[in-house]
Amino acid sequence: MTTAYPGTAIYELYQEIRDDIDTTTARSHAVPGLLKLLTVLQFFATGTFQHVLGGNSGVDQATVSGHLAQVLLALKKCVWKHIAFPTGEEEWRRIKQDFYKIAGMPNVLGAIDCTHVAFTPPADQELQYRNRKMGYLLNVQAVCDANLRILDVVTRYPGSCHDSYILLNRDARYGSKTWLLTLLAMPRSDAEKQYNEAHISTRCTIERTFGVLKSRFRCLHISGGSLQYSPEKVAVIVLVCCMLHNIALNHHLDIEIVVPPEVDITPLDRGSDVSRGNAVRRQVIQEFFSTPRQPL
Fold it and tell me: Could you give the CA distance from residue 113 to residue 136 in angstroms, rounded to a whole number?
Protein backbone atom coordinates (compact mmCIF):
# COMPACT_ATOMS: atom_id res chain seq x y z
CA MET A 1 0.00 0.00 0.00
CA THR A 2 1.27 3.47 -0.89
CA THR A 3 1.69 5.79 2.08
CA ALA A 4 0.11 9.22 1.66
CA TYR A 5 2.04 12.23 2.92
CA PRO A 6 0.24 15.59 3.37
CA GLY A 7 3.54 17.37 2.75
CA THR A 8 3.62 16.14 -0.83
CA ALA A 9 0.18 17.61 -1.57
CA ILE A 10 1.07 20.89 0.11
CA TYR A 11 4.34 21.24 -1.76
CA GLU A 12 2.67 20.53 -5.10
CA LEU A 13 0.04 23.14 -4.28
CA TYR A 14 2.78 25.61 -3.37
CA GLN A 15 4.48 25.01 -6.70
CA GLU A 16 1.18 25.74 -8.43
CA ILE A 17 0.73 29.16 -6.80
CA ARG A 18 4.27 30.19 -5.82
CA ASP A 19 4.52 32.90 -8.49
CA ASP A 20 1.58 34.66 -6.84
CA ILE A 21 2.63 34.35 -3.20
CA ASP A 22 6.42 34.48 -3.14
CA THR A 23 7.72 37.94 -2.41
CA THR A 24 9.69 39.83 -5.04
CA THR A 25 11.29 42.20 -2.56
CA ALA A 26 14.90 41.94 -1.48
CA ARG A 27 13.99 42.60 2.17
CA SER A 28 15.75 40.16 4.50
CA HIS A 29 12.62 39.67 6.67
CA ALA A 30 10.17 38.95 3.85
CA VAL A 31 7.86 36.03 4.69
CA PRO A 32 8.42 33.04 2.40
CA GLY A 33 5.47 32.03 0.23
CA LEU A 34 5.40 28.50 1.64
CA LEU A 35 4.99 29.88 5.17
CA LYS A 36 2.10 32.04 3.98
CA LEU A 37 0.42 28.99 2.49
CA LEU A 38 0.97 26.90 5.62
CA THR A 39 -0.49 29.66 7.79
CA VAL A 40 -3.62 29.85 5.66
CA LEU A 41 -3.99 26.05 5.56
CA GLN A 42 -3.76 26.01 9.34
CA PHE A 43 -6.60 28.53 9.50
CA PHE A 44 -8.72 26.41 7.13
CA ALA A 45 -8.03 23.28 9.15
CA THR A 46 -8.69 24.74 12.59
CA GLY A 47 -10.81 27.86 12.23
CA THR A 48 -8.38 29.50 14.68
CA PHE A 49 -8.56 33.28 14.74
CA GLN A 50 -5.80 35.21 13.08
CA HIS A 51 -4.05 36.53 16.18
CA VAL A 52 -3.43 32.94 17.32
CA LEU A 53 -2.15 31.95 13.89
CA GLY A 54 0.11 34.96 13.86
CA GLY A 55 1.58 33.94 17.21
CA ASN A 56 2.28 30.45 15.90
CA SER A 57 4.03 31.67 12.77
CA GLY A 58 5.81 34.65 14.33
CA VAL A 59 3.90 37.44 12.53
CA ASP A 60 1.24 39.87 13.70
CA GLN A 61 -2.49 39.75 12.99
CA ALA A 62 -2.38 42.37 10.25
CA THR A 63 0.30 40.41 8.43
CA VAL A 64 -1.73 37.19 8.70
CA SER A 65 -4.74 39.03 7.29
CA GLY A 66 -2.67 40.18 4.33
CA HIS A 67 -1.34 36.67 3.77
CA LEU A 68 -4.87 35.27 3.80
CA ALA A 69 -6.00 37.73 1.15
CA GLN A 70 -2.95 37.05 -1.04
CA VAL A 71 -3.10 33.26 -0.76
CA LEU A 72 -6.88 33.18 -1.26
CA LEU A 73 -6.53 35.13 -4.48
CA ALA A 74 -3.82 32.77 -5.73
CA LEU A 75 -5.79 29.65 -4.80
CA LYS A 76 -8.98 30.99 -6.36
CA LYS A 77 -7.25 31.07 -9.74
CA CYS A 78 -6.76 27.30 -9.52
CA VAL A 79 -10.26 26.30 -8.41
CA TRP A 80 -11.78 25.27 -11.72
CA LYS A 81 -8.72 23.22 -12.57
CA HIS A 82 -9.55 20.96 -9.62
CA ILE A 83 -13.36 21.23 -9.56
CA ALA A 84 -14.91 20.23 -12.86
CA PHE A 85 -17.92 18.26 -14.01
CA PRO A 86 -16.82 15.43 -16.34
CA THR A 87 -17.53 15.88 -20.03
CA GLY A 88 -16.39 12.61 -21.57
CA GLU A 89 -18.57 9.53 -22.00
CA GLU A 90 -15.99 7.27 -20.37
CA GLU A 91 -15.98 9.41 -17.23
CA TRP A 92 -19.78 9.51 -17.23
CA ARG A 93 -19.87 5.72 -17.46
CA ARG A 94 -17.47 5.32 -14.54
CA ILE A 95 -19.45 7.71 -12.35
CA LYS A 96 -22.74 5.97 -13.18
CA GLN A 97 -21.23 2.58 -12.38
CA ASP A 98 -19.86 3.81 -9.04
CA PHE A 99 -23.25 5.18 -8.02
CA TYR A 100 -25.09 2.07 -9.24
CA LYS A 101 -22.87 -0.13 -7.07
CA ILE A 102 -24.14 1.64 -3.94
CA ALA A 103 -27.81 0.67 -4.16
CA GLY A 104 -28.81 0.06 -7.76
CA MET A 105 -29.83 3.61 -8.68
CA PRO A 106 -29.35 3.95 -12.46
CA ASN A 107 -27.77 6.70 -14.56
CA VAL A 108 -26.66 8.90 -11.66
CA LEU A 109 -24.03 11.49 -12.58
CA GLY A 110 -23.99 13.31 -9.25
CA ALA A 111 -25.61 13.73 -5.84
CA ILE A 112 -26.71 17.29 -5.00
CA ASP A 113 -27.54 19.08 -1.78
CA CYS A 114 -26.85 22.24 0.21
CA THR A 115 -24.93 22.92 3.39
CA HIS A 116 -24.59 26.04 5.54
CA VAL A 117 -21.51 27.96 6.61
CA ALA A 118 -21.82 30.37 9.53
CA PHE A 119 -20.32 33.85 9.35
CA THR A 120 -20.90 37.37 10.64
CA PRO A 121 -22.19 39.62 7.84
CA PRO A 122 -22.03 43.42 7.74
CA ALA A 123 -24.88 45.04 9.66
CA ASP A 124 -26.56 46.32 6.50
CA GLN A 125 -26.68 42.79 5.03
CA GLU A 126 -27.78 40.83 8.08
CA LEU A 127 -31.40 40.30 7.01
CA GLN A 128 -30.67 38.45 3.78
CA TYR A 129 -28.14 36.12 5.41
CA ARG A 130 -30.22 35.33 8.48
CA ASN A 131 -31.64 31.84 8.70
CA ARG A 132 -34.53 31.78 11.16
CA LYS A 133 -33.14 28.79 13.09
CA MET A 134 -29.38 28.83 12.58
CA GLY A 135 -28.15 32.43 12.63
CA TYR A 136 -26.25 34.09 9.78
CA LEU A 137 -25.30 31.69 7.03
CA LEU A 138 -24.04 31.24 3.52
CA ASN A 139 -26.01 28.53 1.69
CA VAL A 140 -23.60 26.39 -0.34
CA GLN A 141 -24.83 23.97 -3.00
CA ALA A 142 -22.57 21.18 -4.26
CA VAL A 143 -22.61 18.13 -6.52
CA CYS A 144 -20.38 15.14 -5.77
CA ASP A 145 -19.60 11.77 -7.32
CA ALA A 146 -19.83 8.41 -5.54
CA ASN A 147 -16.26 8.81 -4.24
CA LEU A 148 -17.00 12.14 -2.51
CA ARG A 149 -15.24 14.22 -5.13
CA ILE A 150 -16.86 17.65 -5.58
CA LEU A 151 -17.83 18.15 -9.22
CA ASP A 152 -19.54 21.52 -8.91
CA VAL A 153 -20.16 24.08 -6.20
CA VAL A 154 -22.09 27.34 -5.89
CA THR A 155 -21.20 29.61 -2.96
CA ARG A 156 -22.86 32.93 -3.68
CA TYR A 157 -26.31 32.57 -2.03
CA PRO A 158 -27.32 33.76 1.45
CA GLY A 159 -28.69 31.49 4.15
CA SER A 160 -32.19 32.90 3.74
CA CYS A 161 -32.39 31.30 0.25
CA HIS A 162 -34.16 27.99 -0.06
CA ASP A 163 -32.18 25.15 -1.64
CA SER A 164 -34.60 24.85 -4.57
CA TYR A 165 -34.21 28.57 -5.32
CA ILE A 166 -30.47 28.07 -5.75
CA LEU A 167 -31.08 25.14 -8.06
CA LEU A 168 -33.55 27.06 -10.22
CA ASN A 169 -31.20 30.00 -10.48
CA ARG A 170 -28.38 27.75 -11.69
CA ASP A 171 -29.82 27.03 -14.95
CA ALA A 172 -38.29 15.67 -0.95
CA ARG A 173 -36.71 19.39 -0.88
CA TYR A 174 -36.03 19.98 -4.50
CA GLY A 175 -38.91 19.54 -6.92
CA SER A 176 -38.71 16.37 -9.01
CA LYS A 177 -37.42 17.01 -12.55
CA THR A 178 -36.58 14.86 -15.55
CA TRP A 179 -32.90 15.14 -14.62
CA LEU A 180 -33.31 15.23 -10.81
CA LEU A 181 -34.75 12.28 -8.89
CA THR A 182 -36.23 12.94 -5.45
CA LEU A 183 -37.75 10.82 -2.70
CA LEU A 184 -41.40 9.78 -2.73
CA ALA A 185 -43.18 11.46 0.17
CA MET A 186 -45.48 8.46 0.76
CA PRO A 187 -44.16 5.24 -0.80
CA ARG A 188 -46.82 2.55 -1.02
CA SER A 189 -45.68 -0.39 -3.14
CA ASP A 190 -42.64 -2.53 -2.42
CA ALA A 191 -40.99 -1.07 -5.53
CA GLU A 192 -41.55 2.48 -4.28
CA LYS A 193 -40.14 1.58 -0.87
CA GLN A 194 -37.10 -0.02 -2.48
CA TYR A 195 -36.65 3.07 -4.65
CA ASN A 196 -36.70 5.32 -1.58
CA GLU A 197 -34.19 3.11 0.24
CA ALA A 198 -31.87 3.16 -2.78
CA HIS A 199 -32.30 6.92 -3.12
CA ILE A 200 -31.39 7.52 0.52
CA SER A 201 -28.32 5.27 0.32
CA THR A 202 -27.15 6.94 -2.89
CA ARG A 203 -27.84 10.48 -1.69
CA CYS A 204 -25.80 9.84 1.46
CA THR A 205 -22.69 10.44 -0.65
CA ILE A 206 -23.27 14.20 -0.65
CA GLU A 207 -23.91 14.21 3.10
CA ARG A 208 -20.68 12.28 3.63
CA THR A 209 -18.90 14.72 1.31
CA PHE A 210 -20.02 17.66 3.45
CA GLY A 211 -19.03 15.74 6.59
CA VAL A 212 -15.52 15.06 5.30
CA LEU A 213 -15.16 18.61 3.96
CA LYS A 214 -16.06 20.18 7.31
CA SER A 215 -14.00 17.70 9.30
CA ARG A 216 -10.99 18.49 7.16
CA PHE A 217 -11.61 22.25 7.19
CA ARG A 218 -13.07 23.17 10.55
CA CYS A 219 -13.31 26.84 9.59
CA LEU A 220 -16.46 25.81 7.66
CA HIS A 221 -18.13 24.11 10.62
CA ILE A 222 -19.90 25.97 13.39
CA SER A 223 -17.60 24.29 15.92
CA GLY A 224 -14.76 26.31 14.37
CA GLY A 225 -16.63 29.55 15.11
CA SER A 226 -18.35 32.03 12.85
CA LEU A 227 -16.15 33.38 10.05
CA GLN A 228 -15.48 37.09 10.53
CA TYR A 229 -15.30 38.15 6.89
CA SER A 230 -17.45 39.67 4.19
CA PRO A 231 -19.90 37.41 2.30
CA GLU A 232 -17.68 37.63 -0.78
CA LYS A 233 -14.59 36.52 1.13
CA VAL A 234 -16.45 33.70 2.87
CA ALA A 235 -17.68 32.49 -0.52
CA VAL A 236 -14.08 32.32 -1.77
CA ILE A 237 -12.94 30.50 1.39
CA VAL A 238 -15.64 27.85 0.86
CA LEU A 239 -14.75 27.51 -2.83
CA VAL A 240 -11.06 27.11 -2.06
CA CYS A 241 -11.73 24.55 0.69
CA CYS A 242 -13.79 22.51 -1.79
CA MET A 243 -10.84 22.56 -4.17
CA LEU A 244 -8.45 21.51 -1.40
CA HIS A 245 -10.84 18.68 -0.50
CA ASN A 246 -10.50 17.31 -4.04
CA ILE A 247 -6.72 17.68 -3.94
CA ALA A 248 -6.65 15.74 -0.65
CA LEU A 249 -8.73 12.96 -2.27
CA ASN A 250 -6.31 12.83 -5.20
CA HIS A 251 -3.48 12.29 -2.71
CA HIS A 252 -5.49 9.69 -0.74
CA LEU A 253 -5.38 11.75 2.42
CA ASP A 254 -8.13 10.08 4.40
CA ILE A 255 -9.85 11.71 7.34
CA GLU A 256 -12.36 10.51 9.90
CA ILE A 257 -15.63 12.43 10.07
CA VAL A 258 -15.52 14.05 13.50
CA VAL A 259 -18.06 16.86 13.23
CA PRO A 260 -21.74 16.27 14.12
CA PRO A 261 -24.27 16.13 11.28
CA GLU A 262 -26.12 19.33 10.51
CA VAL A 263 -29.84 19.59 11.12
CA ASP A 264 -32.04 19.76 8.03
CA ILE A 265 -34.33 22.71 8.67
CA THR A 266 -35.53 23.53 5.15
CA PRO A 267 -39.15 22.72 4.25
CA LEU A 268 -40.29 20.51 1.39
CA ASP A 269 -40.60 22.43 -1.86
CA ARG A 270 -41.88 20.58 -4.89
CA GLY A 271 -41.07 23.35 -7.35
CA SER A 272 -43.17 24.41 -10.33
CA ASP A 273 -42.41 21.80 -13.01
CA VAL A 274 -42.70 18.47 -11.25
CA SER A 275 -45.09 16.54 -13.47
CA ARG A 276 -42.54 15.40 -16.05
CA GLY A 277 -40.01 14.76 -13.30
CA ASN A 278 -42.54 12.58 -11.48
CA ALA A 279 -43.11 10.61 -14.70
CA VAL A 280 -39.38 9.94 -15.01
CA ARG A 281 -39.27 8.86 -11.38
CA ARG A 282 -42.19 6.44 -11.93
CA GLN A 283 -40.36 4.99 -14.92
CA VAL A 284 -37.19 4.44 -12.89
CA ILE A 285 -39.19 2.73 -10.12
CA GLN A 286 -40.95 0.46 -12.63
CA GLU A 287 -37.83 -0.51 -14.57
CA PHE A 288 -35.27 -0.82 -11.76
CA PHE A 289 -37.11 -1.55 -8.52
CA SER A 290 -40.12 -3.69 -9.46
CA THR A 291 -37.89 -6.68 -10.24
CA PRO A 292 -34.67 -8.04 -8.72
CA ARG A 293 -31.67 -5.79 -9.30
CA GLN A 294 -29.80 -6.39 -12.53
CA PRO A 295 -26.11 -5.62 -13.25
CA LEU A 296 -25.50 -2.32 -15.04
Answer: 19
